């Protein structure tokens, strides 16, 4: 899973700081865990290490799992030629 996310990001020149793991159980409940690093996630190994740490907080699973996902967020799109999102002055 992490390799697929990393390949997409590399192909589109995107970096991110937050790794999120989502676990969906057979009873349709779900758990989400995330971790943010100071710099950009440097590769598949770091993303996998963070994902494994996050999964350790809910493993062993108490119910059957129907879906498991990994995402990368807090994306840096400045390198991809897109304008950064502006902050609202609230």
Describe what this molecule looks like in 3D.
- This protein is of the alpha+beta class.
- The chain has a single domain (2-76), classed as 2-Layer Sandwich (Dna Ligase, domain 1), CATH 3.30.1490.
- Helix content is 26%, strand content 27%.
- A three-stranded antiparallel beta sheet has the order 2-1-3, with helices on one face.
- The protein is globular and about 40 Å long.
- The mean pLDDT is 81.
CATH level-1 class: Alpha Beta
Average pLDDT works out at 81
Helices and strands, in N-to-C order?
HEEHE
Q: What fraction strand? A: 25-35%
Tell me the major beta sheet. Answer: 3 strands, antiparallel
The helix content is 25-40%
Shape verdict: globular
* Structural domain tally: 1
Total DSSP helices: 2
Structural class: alpha+beta
Beta strands, count? 3
Low-confidence stretches: none
Output the CATH homologous superfamily: DNA polymerase, Y-family, little finger domain
How far apart the termini lie comes to 38 Å
Rg from C-alpha positions?
A: 15 Å
Question: Order of strands side by side in the largest beta sheet?
Answer: 2-1-3
Relevant terms:
90 residues; alpha+beta; Dna Ligase, domain 1; 2 helices; 3 strands; 26% helix; 27% strand
């Amino acid at each position: 899973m992490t390799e697929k996310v990393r390949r997409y990001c590399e192909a589109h020149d995107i970096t991110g700081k937050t790794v999120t793991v989502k676990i969906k159980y057979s009873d349709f409940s779900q758990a989400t865990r995330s971790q943010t690093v100071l710099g950009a996630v440097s590769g598949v190994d770091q993303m996998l290490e963070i994902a494994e740490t996050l999964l350790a907080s809910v493993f062993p699973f108490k119910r059957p799992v129907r879906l498991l996902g990994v995402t990368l967020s807090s994306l840096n799109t400045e390198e991809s030629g897109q304008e950064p999102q502006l902050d609202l002055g609230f």
